[in-house]
Amino acid sequence: MKELFRRSTRDWIVDSIVFVVAVFAGFLLYDEGSKDPISPGLLAIDFYVGMALCLTLWFRRRWPLQLAIIGAAVSTFSDTAGVAALILILTVAIHRPLRTTVLVFGVNAISLAVYVQIRDKPDDPTAVVIAAISVYVAVAGWGLYVRSRRQLLQTLRDRADRAEAVARLEAERGQLRAREEIAREMHDVLGHRLSLLSVHAGALAYRQDASADEVAGAAEIIRASAHQALQDLREVIGVLRAPVGELPQPAFSDLPALIDGSREAGIPVDLTLDAPGAMPEHVGRTAYRIVQEGLTNAVKHAPGEPVTISVTGAPGNGLSVELRNPAPNRRRGDGQGLKGLSERAALVEGRIEHGRTPEGDFRLYAWLPWPA
Q1: How many CB atoms lie within 10 A of CB 286?
Q2: CATH code reported for the domain at 252-368
Q3: 250-273 pLDDT, tens per residue?
Q4: Where in the chain is the domain with CATH 3.30.565.10?
Q5: pTM of the model
Q6: Is the model's pLDDT at 204 over the cut of 70?
């Protein structure tokens, strides 16, 4: 009975619908089959055995082949089991190889020949056989189509997962190489300069044109400051060499602090922020990076010009991010920053637009999905 506990909510819904349909159709087929010239005993067996086969549909995912063979045997005399037997054929076609499906189809074809002899239908037996085989072929074909489609989707998912894993690994390796290079450069340049500062500060203690206490006090301060700078440098290098997952990442809540820092640096920024609600972390981080890159471009290409930023949205409607700034002297750069933003937006299924407006401003616009 472990199968019952492994069913998903969708499986429970599908199995319940299948069971109800099989039982309802069984009653209709039994009523129609009661008109056949057969004994009351066989008619009673038809009903009870057919209902029992409907009950076995709850276990069709666990034993599809076995139950399909039982269904074929019951179908030799039971009208009530007709739809349940078809569902079992469909289950085999979906979950078992083609060879097994052909085997089950053949067994049901044999049971159909026996059924025609036992039930002695008043209609033309040939028409009954043709109609039944047509239904068998349609059901088996449908099941094989569902099976092939599921296999195709699973193959595509596996390929996408592998491609994503390879891309993520390559990106992490590239970032690690870049961080190692930065750390090495900072150590070689800043470490050397700060070491010289420490040496000169030590020599200051021996100057003769100031009192010994003054020189010693100033030298001690410089020495302490240089030592602290070296400690800070080691901490920065340690962060740069840390694994990718351990580096702190900005969030949407850090956006006001980013704007305040830009204003303190002398950039006139007008911010409109209207995005209430719980925002997904990856969407908020992407919005932060877009605003950050937009401010960087504004300072680079139009220093001192005002920047207008609008960040608005709501769950279900998406998040819109727009930056505008006058750019009369804007020059073409390498475009790597905007290209990176486009890639960031694409990763969260968003889009980026940029270019000059009719008024001559430069406009950077992004739309990011925000699920309800």
Answers
A1: 22
A2: 3.30.565.10
A3: 788 888 888 887 777 667 889 999
A4: 252-368
A5: 0.42
A6: no
